């Protein structure tokens, strides 16, 4: 059996149409259109958050001063909350002020790119595709 070639079965259009019709009728039998929805009583219901733009959900409530102070304190950076670093990682960047004034006119520390005739010429040649940068 394994050595015999497979024979092609000629499909009959009437038979094919009958199979498709049976599938269609089976789908119609099993499908049901639901128009009324309800919550499944066997599932745990999760709370839904309120809508932010709804007027009845945003009624004025008295502000809790202790809670607001706690939130504002937590939102501050660690340098404003503590007088000194609390962890070793905080010690790395605790003193972030520069040791000297960053004066832009001091040429000992600031080495800006200076373009003159030869550097502009070479930059243009490199942009056009010349590849002798390492010569």
From TrEMBL:
Keywords: Cell projection, Cytoplasm, Cytoskeleton. InterPro entries: CFAP144. It is found in: Cell projection, Cilium; Cytoplasm, Cytoskeleton. Its main location: other. Residues 77-103 are annotated as: Disordered. Pfam families: FAM183 (PF14886). It comes from the Eukaryota. Belongs to the CFAP144 family. This is Family with sequence similarity 183 member A. It comes from Saguinus oedipus.
């Amino acid at each position: 059996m394994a050595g015999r070639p497979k024979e092609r079965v000629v499909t009959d259009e009437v038979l094919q149409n009958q199979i498709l019709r049976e599938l269609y009728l089976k789908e119609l039998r099993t499908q049901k259109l639901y128009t009324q929805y309800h919550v499944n009583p066997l599932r745990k219901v999760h709370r839904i958050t309120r809508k932010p733009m709804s007027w009845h959900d945003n009624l004025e409530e008295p502000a809790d001063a202790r809670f607001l102070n706690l939130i504002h304190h937590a939102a501050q950076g660690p340098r404003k909350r503590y007088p000194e670093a609390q962890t070793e990682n905080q010690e790395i960047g605790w003193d972030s002020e520069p040791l000297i004034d960053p004066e832009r006119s001091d040429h000992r520390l600031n080495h800006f790119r200076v373009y003159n005739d030869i550097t502009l010429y070479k930059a243009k040649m490199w942009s056009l595709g010349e590849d002798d940068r390492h010569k």
